[in-house]
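Give me C-alpha cells for this 366-residue protein.
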Amino acid sequence: MPDFRYVRFDPRLASLRELVDDLRRLFNELLVRTDGDVEEALRYLENIAERHGLFDERFGMDDFRRLLEQERTVATDRDGRLRLTPKGERVIRRESLDAIFSSLRSDTRGDHRAPSAGEGRERLPETRAYAFGDPISLVDGPGTIGNAIRRAGIDELSVTEEDLQVFETEHLTSCATVVLVDISHSMVLYGEDRITPAKKVAMALAELITTEYPKDALHVVLFGDDAREVPIDELPYISVGPYHTNTRGGLRLAQEILRTRRQVNRQIFMITDGKPSALTERDGTVYKNPFGLDERIVNKTLDEAANCRRLGIPVTTFMLTDDPVLVDFVDRFTQVNRGRAYFSEPSRLGDFVLVDFLRNRRRRVR
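Here you go.
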C-alpha cells in the first residue's frame, strides 16, 4: 500500500519554495549567458533581485549562496572564487533538455533502429515461440493461453513450455554522435545572441544522449577558424571569438572522429547560424571571406556534406536564424546530405521547424 503523509498547508513556506525555484532557474540562465562564471552570474542575479524586490527578510542573497553550496552545485576553488561543480554542470544540461526537447523526445532521432528483429527495448506486435533465455516480461499471455487451449482443450487447461509465445522486439544498436557547435563571431553579430541558445541546444543533446543512450559514444567539436574537440563538461563555458565559420573543417574533424568508432550507426548534430566563411587549404592555411557564402567555400562545404552521405553519416542541423539567404544554404546542405534541419529563432528555441529531406516532409515541432 502506498504511504501517504498529510501536513497542514503553509502558504508562506509554499511561496518561499516557489521563489527559490524561480531563483534557481534564473541563476542557471545567467550561468549560460556568462559562460559558466558563477561569480558574475550571482552579481547579475543580485542586481535583478534588488530591482524587482525578490529578496526579503525570509530569504536573501547570502541564503541563496549558502543553498547552492549545500546542494553542491557550486564550490569554492583555491582562489576563493565560486565555481560550478560537476553536479552543477549536469543540472544546467538537464534544464536545457527539459526546456528545449521535451516536445521532441518522441521523435525518432535518438533511437538507433535496424531492420532486423532481435533483443531490444521496443516491443513489436509480432510474436514467436519462446526460446530459452527470453525474458518473462515479453510473454504474450493471451497468445500463450490460446496455444494451451488448442493443444489440450479448455477442460484440462495447463501451460507447458511449448505453449509459451513471446513478443518480438526491435533491435536497437548503439550510435556514435558528434555535436558540432559554431563559435564564430557571427553568433553574436549585430547584438543578436545566438551562442546562448546554441549552448542550450548542445547541452540538451549531450544530456539526452548520455542519460537515455548510455552505450552511445558522444563527442563535442567547436568550429571557428579551425575545429577542435572539447570534453562534454566544457559546454557551459563555451564562448565565441573573433573567428570565421569553418563548417567544412568541423565536418572533416567529425568524420575523422567517427571513423575511429566501432558503432555501426554514426551521426552528426551541427548547431550553427549557417554561414560558412572559411576553409582550410591543403597547406594548412585558412582561406577566409568575412562576407560569407563565397561560392568556393560553399561548394567545398557541400562536397563535405555529400561525403558524409556516402559514408552513411546523416547530419542534423540546428539553424539559429531565420535569414532567408542562410536558410537557403542550410536547405541545400541538408538536401545534399539527405539529412534533417531544425530551424528556430533564438528567442523561440523550443519551437522548431523540421525539414526532413530523407522523408521529404516539413513540419513545425513545438
